[in-house]
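Input.
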Amino acid sequence: MKILLDTDIGCDIDDCLAIPYLLSSERVELLGITTVTGSPNKRAQLARAVCDACGKDIPIHVGFAEPLSGPLYQTALTDTQEAVAKQSSVAYSEEPTAIEFMRQIIEDNPHEVTLVSIGPLTNIGVLFSEYPHIPSLLKGLAIMGGRYTNDPDFDTARWGKKEWNIHCDIKAANIVFSQCASPCLVIGVEQTCRFSVIPQPLKETLFRYPQWRPVSDSINTVAKSIYFHDVILLYSLLHPEDVEIICGNISVDSEGTTEFTSSDEGMFCLVSGYDPYRFFESYKEALGIELQS
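Output.
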């Protein structure tokens, strides 16, 4: 599977955990990584540090720092992840090159590329707006974004009434969801928040493997739990046989609320269930790690 990854790596640790999963998968040809939201050049440096540690020369391009609408909520990287970014020998300009890079890759590989978004949708919103032919050239789209159920057990105090990636650029999200022209896999925070681990054992485990040291160094053990939001999207994309999916349509309103309407003819495939244990076994197997208790 040919994949382009658009990421806001440098804030929540899940983006940093997601890249090793793609790099380790025999099912994936990672064609490139683009970064989005505040300090995207530093986010590119962090992605480079992660890729270089495991000997992968993946093209990495800087995207847009500012959202298409609303305030900028993510202005900088966390302290631990910025420190890892500084380990990279490659310095990236603040000038965005991501859009032209994505356009070229997709045009060169018509109907073969799956575009994966694990951050605010700014870059993809610009791509679809400036090049309206691009959505129809994709093999597929995959998005970690939105909330699609009103489960009374959902921790609204922890996760908010609106999902973060959508909230960070509502206009871009509206563009992407409304202009989608190929099958789109979507997972909402109500699913991804179902699994977490304690930071310290994972940090110690990853440190034992030289290729994953930058990821280990990026983990802040002050946090009570680490969530794998973005990685679970990738798991769902690479192992569709192991997740529950319902088809339908998705809309984004002006306040950033996402709504799913079931329809057999809908273009959106919403992940409605998965086995957290099986997911984590897949993750550990892909990275070749044994978690220390």
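The mean pLDDT is 95.
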